[in-house]
Amino acid sequence: MIYIASDHRGFELKKKILKEHPGFLDLGPRAYDAEDDYNDYAANLAINVRDASTATPTANPPSFGIIICGSAHGVAIEANRFKGIRAIVGLTPELAKIGREHNNANVLCLSADFTKEEDVMKIIDVFLNTKTRTEEKYARRNVKLDKYGED
Questions:
Q1: Does the active-site annotation cover 109?
Q2: Which of 8, 21, 73, 102 is catalytic?
């Protein structure tokens, strides 16, 4: 399952992504609201990814999330408050790849304001198709990432 959500600043980019990937489950918003808060959408997406996943630090998670706001920072901070969520800011395909390979990231945070629109689909493709490295050092570090946070 691949979940997607945004705030008002990411709303138009989310609509474009959904045209290319109609199978993604849209967690909102359904309509543009200039007064919405990214926190609400990021938390909801993180909870859905966490609850749908049975991932271990050395296996690829069965569920992913993509969350979009203006900078990608706020949604990353919010999503990472939840145990089992490893959200990364993927401004480039290379950063998305490293986030999956090294950190077993399961949430991709995109910046509507700072990511080139022509790069977005490639970033998503790289994120969804990159496998996590299984060497002991990555597994050990990823276990530590999940040590704290809200259940």
A1: no
A2: 102
